Amino acid sequence: MQRRTFGRLVAAAGILLASTALTIPTTMAQSEKTITGGFDVGPGGYPGNFHPHQATAGFTWLSTYYEPLVIYNPDLSEIVGALAADVSISEDSLQYTFKLADAKWHDGEPFTSADVKFSLELAKNPDSGSLFAARLGDIASVEAPNDSTAVVTLGKPNAAFLAILTQVMMLPEHLLGSRDPAELANSDWWSTEPVGTGPFKFVQYVSDQYVELAAFDDYRNGRPKVDRLINRYFANAAAAVAALKAGEIQFTYVEPDDAKTFEGNDGFRVIEGDSYVVNYIGFNHKVDLWQDVRVRQAVMYAIDRDQIIESLYGGAAKVASCGYVAPQIVPGGLNDYAYDPEKAKALLAEAGWDQISGGETIPWLTYYNSPQVGNVMAAIQAMLAQVGINVSPRAVDVPTYNGIVRGTDWDQFPLVYAGAQNGPNPASLNVNLNAAQVPPVGNNIMHIDMPELTEAIETAMAETDTSKSNELWQQVCGVMNEKMPWGSMWVASRYGVASANLKDFYWTPAPAGGPYQAHPENWDIAP
Amino acid sequence: MSQYIIRRVAVGFFMLLALTVLIFGLLRLAPGDPIDAYINPSVPMSASDLDALRVRLGLDQPLPVQYLAWLRAALSGDFGYSIQRGGIPVLPLVLDRIGPTILLMFSGLVIAIVVGIATGILSAVRRNTATDVSLSVLSFIGISSPAFLTALLGLYGFSVMLDWAPSGGMLTPGAPFSLGDLLSHLVLPACLLSIAHSAMIMRYMRASLLEVLSQDYVRTARAKGVREFWVIVKHAVRNALLPVITLIGSTIGIAIGGAIFIESVFNWPGMGLLMINAVTRRDYPVIMCATLLTGACVIIVNLLTDIIYAAVDPRIKVS
User: Fold this and answer.
1) Residue B139 domain boundaries
2) Does an H or E element contain A318, and which?
3) Does residue B80 belong to any structural domain of this protein?
4) Domain holding B195: CATH number?
5) pLDDT of A37-63, one tens digit each?
6) CA distance A201 to chain B (A)
7) Is the domain covering A33-250+501-525 a CATH 3.40.50.1820 domain?
8) Distances A14 to A7, A9, B102 between C-alpha atoms, Å
9) Which of A360, A450, B169, B319 is most buried, with most CB under 10 Å away?
10) Is A188 in contact with B99 (Cβ distance < 8 A)?
11) What gap in Å lies between CA A191 and CA B85, rounded to an integer?
């Protein structure tokens, strides 16, 4: 009896094994040239998101099959045309005229101004689940005078408008125009049969495993050099590094510590780039402790940033004296807050906070969970303790962090360690620093309310002339340096590693993944 | 018997209901919601856009209202849409993952049963020899190694250093399906998954067999001149298997727990990976549906084990 039962169990297991193996879907045949990469690994990626208007990151990958009207150039210094061959802006900075490139959708239909009108109106419509609705709120109208011209009129000038448009992907009006925007928010169209104009077209998404694209023969800049592009998903960057070392993928983002292990290895190319993210120590301005600027400055003097950059970042970071480090927008004569623990103690005493911790520790919240940031925070913790400020780092996951800092329980986050995107357009910092941007409107989670800073930022953002706006951003930098809304630490480099057999492959660690002109149609792989 | 089954099914149903209340409550105790998971803290997001999304998804409603709305829909078979996956319906998403998880779990289980029983027999027969001691030491290491540790060490050793097996996934991306490809991806996670389980089975098998070997009927068999091999296999092992079958059934829940770790390390597209991804991104509808199905599986397997046990051993009265 027992043996029979046991035998039955084994037989049942065998049948289950066989039936599962048979039901696993077959994939398309492998062709000659395939590039496989972890394109959604790291802070710029957004694995599992297929709706381009709901993307907060992942634009490196999305822009291999969709395209925006305008896009950043490869070094992110300038916005250039993508699906718009040419952009002209009226004198009053209200009217943008886009001359469209001669492009085709993956299904062969021509790309026209009707698609531009449809895409922008959809992105502006909050019912569609678009995360661009508020940012595109300045659009008064979108006109399509002829098939190859689109005219966008703004209600008021917005110097960041083109920068926002770089992330708004164009969508096919002929396929989606008749559908209800609310229904599109929850549609499987995005992950099963999306149609774009990019160099590659969608083949399939194997849930949580990979996304497969195939070369688009009619791409306007010529057919891509490889036949297939595969974006493999990984649970974390370390798993992607294992696959890269095992030769299963040809590219991935890597953590700085992992990047070092590839140095001097001829089989790989380490790509270093500016993260465009400034790391800062955020002082919660609702907490009494930080009301006096001298206390905030004391924190800066207590931290030996050069030492941390040297020993924990291997020199691959730049000290930040304000929210950004780009030379054209940083003025001369700033206070560099060079390491001076005695001065820190003196400032604390002057401000009446020399017993700052009063025997208790100050919770220091972060969403960074990497070992490197753990070490950085431990080093800062030790340095602050030298001047009598006792902090206890607390690392949580992103939703928990956002849930806490967007609430009002100030004791939970008197101090944070965070990052803020500071480029390519410095106006990105507006949502973090402008007094009008406290949650739920924006992301000013530290409740910074400095009229002088807000005014300086708003003036700089309204200026569309580049040379004048650089000068205005220098003023913003000066205010940040003096008033210390937060303690700017550094801008660190980020890394990717590509296999040496990739040819003409371009990648840079752009915030949110860009998009930028990566020209995936030129990417090639040596046999 | 049928009355017993009906009662057990009814209790199981209420347990599932309690499970959904518990999971729903626990999830909401954690700070942050699915919309908070959307916000990349370093990327400038206009928070008001996200608040509009929160209202559209009904996340601004009081908790009991949200729970009842979920329950009403779930009872009619509608588990809603995944919040983090561009609106893919939850039920097909979760059902798609059952196949790979069963494949991984049963492969691990079969390896664990074969290895565990074989080493358990060997250990008992060679009691107090060097073989027994070394197998016992290995089994203690196996039992005390957490799944996430063995998974990471196995991945590093066999995949990165030795290059014997792929580093993750279920199939080579973009390659045509082949059974060999599937098996090459399966073998490493299945073996690692089986370690703790086989060690546990080995300990039980050894103890149970030692007990049986000292029984009178075994001595009788030996006295009748039956060869030692057949005494062990035919007389002793058959009887010693009974508690081991119980163990296998009652540890299915533990196996599911181990599979969650293994799946996340090896990116195996099963329920475990789905649940981990859903939890980190606060994808409530997916977590609820996956937990409900997993809970149902554990309850059903335990019920089946009790019934099989009663059928195998008539001395046991189920009621």
Assistant:
1) 91-312
2) strand A317-319
3) no
4) 1.10.3720.10
5) 999 998 889 888 899 998 888 999 999
6) 14
7) no
8) 10, 9, 11
9) B169
10) no
11) 9
Same domain, B6 and B127: no
Residues of A within 8 A of B46 (CB-CB) are 131, 134-135, 431, 441-443
Q: Which residues of A touch B156 (CB under 8 A)?
A: 242
pTM of the model: 0.82
- Chain A residue with minimal CA distance to B242? A2
Which residues does chain B have within 8 Å of residue A367's beta carbon, measured at their own beta carbons? 41
Q: Rounded to whole angstroms, what are the CA distances from A245 to A175, A522, B192?
A: 42, 24, 21
Q: Which CATH superfamily hosts domain A274-493?
A: Dipeptide-binding Protein; Domain 3 (3.10.105.10)
The DSSP secondary-structure symbol of B92 reads: H
Mutate to test the interface with B, among A367, A398, A446 (most CBs of B within 10 A): A398
CA triplet B195, B201, B202: central angle to 5 degrees? 85
What spatial distance separates the first Cα and last Cα of chain A, rounded to whole Å? 59
B57 and B97: one domain?
Answer: no
Rounded distance between C-alpha atoms, residue B166 and residue B267, angstroms = 11
Q: Give the nearest partner residue to B49 out of A127, A133, A367, using CB atoms.
A: A133
Q: How many domains does chain B have?
A: 2
* pLDDT given for residue B315 in this prediction: 67
Containing H/E element for B306? helix B284-312
Output A443 or A109, whichever has higher pLDDT. Answer: A109
Measured between beta carbons, the chain A residues lying within 8 angstroms of B39 are: 56, 398, 402, 443
Q: Nearest CB to A246: which of B86, B159, B311?
A: B159
Of A154-158, A241-245, A487-491, B210-214, least confident by mean pLDDT is B210-214
Closest residue in chain A to residue B155, using alpha carbons only: A242
**Contact of A324 with A278, CB cutoff 8 Å:** yes
Nearest to A421 among B43, B168, B274 (CB): B43
d(CA B316, CA B307): 10
Same domain, yes or no: B256 and B162:
yes
Contact check, Cβ <8 Å, B32/A242? no
Residue B221's pLDDT band (boundaries 50, 70, 90)?
Answer: confident
Binary contact (A210, B173; C-beta < 8 A): yes
Assess if residue B119 is contained within a domain.
yes
CA–CA distances in Å: residue B319 to residues A228, A239, B246, B305, B315: 61, 50, 17, 14, 12
- The model's pLDDT over A140-183, given as tens digits with 9 standing for 90+, comes to 999 999 999 999 999 988 888 999 999 999 999 999 999 999 88
Other beta carbons less than 10 A from residue A61's beta carbon:
27
* Residue where a domain stops, chosen among B46, B75, B104: B75
Which residues of chain A make contact with B88, given a CB cutoff of 8 A?
A: 188, 191
Domain with CATH 3.40.190.10 in chain A: 33-250+501-525
Q: How far is CA B156 from CA A6, A210, A488, B151, in A?
A: 36, 22, 38, 9
